[in-house]
Write a structure and sequence with these properties.
361 residues; Translation Initiation Factor IF3; 3 domains; globular; alpha+beta
Length: 361
């Protein structure tokens, strides 16, 4: 059909070409224009698709008019800073692994960088702690704690709670690592207490050297009570009269602060010894067999007792801490110095050499 139309329209095309040559127009372009305008417009397969323009005002054509969303920020309670907390103790990153009586000799960052964030807490950060702004009446605090704990649990109640929460598959568990009892852990404990009467705490690493210290700070900072203790497993009970709605305000630390710089633990000359005697003690310790071998993130509950027994027969001991890490080696040496007590005289290649020191010291 299209071929016949081209044949009949050929004289007309020739005349048009002759006339167009005078105006120096390309014939191919003109033929294409003629074919496009004359023949393709009438052919349905090649006819252009007309797009219906969208109405400018869509609201008139949409019967279901959507209401604008209300701004929920006006209804939400606004956080007012700084946060005020009435907890009766100084806020520290770790409560069980720091000694407030030891003053640092320097800081790795200026004390103005508070881990609680700028302007978020009404306490000033000193570089190691955020001290309470008001005097604390400890008698009143103890009365409130006793009122929350209520009457002591009976043996049947304790055994029921222990059977419910002591197993390893308990969903109410908090892991306590090298940081010990940290500030943010107190908030985790209270969050578990909102739905459970007790929380299971699994302790690993350096803090297990002194479990008495860990238990003290858990009870002191949370207000609960330890009802079960088996090596490194603890159960912390919230109390009979605990009300989750009346929980304390615990501002969270947004990042871990840099630890300050403390005096050196190992001295060139140990106290009570000369330089030659100190050197001799170090060589004896390095060449002696290790009294024990510690693993990374292990359970060190019996280490202090074993060291005390070993000091009854030996003057210098070596503790193998391979793969433990130098930072943990220093923490272990500090704990042993205070708990045994003893004098650390060397740590080299993750080996700790300790001296039992003279009896007169």
């Amino acid at each position: 059909m299209m071929f016949l139309e081209l044949v009949f329209s050929t004289p007309l095309l020739m005349l048009t070409l002759i006339s167009r040559r005078r105006h120096h127009l390309p014939p191919v372009i003109f033929i294409s224009r003629q074919l496009t305008s004359s023949h393709f417009e009438d052919d349905p397969p090649f006819s252009p698709i007309l797009k219906t323009p969208k109405p400018q005002n869509q609201e008139t054509h949409n019967p279901k008019k959507k209401k604008p969303k209300e701004d929920g920020s006006k209804n939400k309670p606004q956080n007012l800073f700084p946060v005020k907390s009435d907890l009766p103790f100084d806020f520290r990153y770790s409560y069980s692994e720091t000694n407030p009586s030891v003053e640092p000799i320097g800081y790795r960052e200026t004390p103005k960088f508070s881990p609680f964030g700028p302007g978020r807490l009404d306490r000033k950060w000193t570089g190691t702690a955020a001290p309470s702004q008001q005097a604390v009446d400890m008698s009143k605090v103890e009365e409130e704690r006793v009122a929350i704990l209520g009457e002591p649990l009976s043996e049947d109640e304790v055994s029921e709670l222990v059977e419910r929460y002591r197993h390893s598959d308990c969903s109410r568990q908090i892991n306590l690592g090298k940081g010990g009892v940290t500030h943010n852990m107190i908030d985790d404990i209270h969050n578990h207490w909102k739905k459970a009467e007790a929380v299971r705490i699994k302790c690993l690493g350096v803090p297990t050297l002194d479990m008495d210290n860990v238990c003290f700070h858990l009870e002191d900072k949370s207000g609960g009570k330890i009802i079960y203790r088996q090596k490194n497993i603890l159960l912390l009970y919230r109390g009979r009269n605990y009300n989750p709605k009346d929980g304390p305000v615990i501002p969270l630390m947004l990042w871990k602060p840099y630890p300050p710089i403390y005096p050196k633990l190992i001295k060139n000359v140990a106290d009570g010894l000369t330089f030659e005697e100190t050197k001799e003690m170090r060589n004896r310790g390095l060449n002696s067999p290790p009294v024990m071998k510690l693993t990374r993130n292990g359970v060190y509950v019996n280490v202090v007792e074993n060291v005390r027994e070993a000091f009854e027969n030996e003057e210098v001991l070596r503790i193998d801490c391979a793969h433990v890490g130098m930072s943990d080696c220093k923490r272990i040496a500090v704990k042993l110095r205070d708990l045994v007590p003893c004098v650390p005289i060397l740590y080299k290649d993750e080996q700790i050499i300790i001296w039992r020191r003279k009896k007169s010291m």
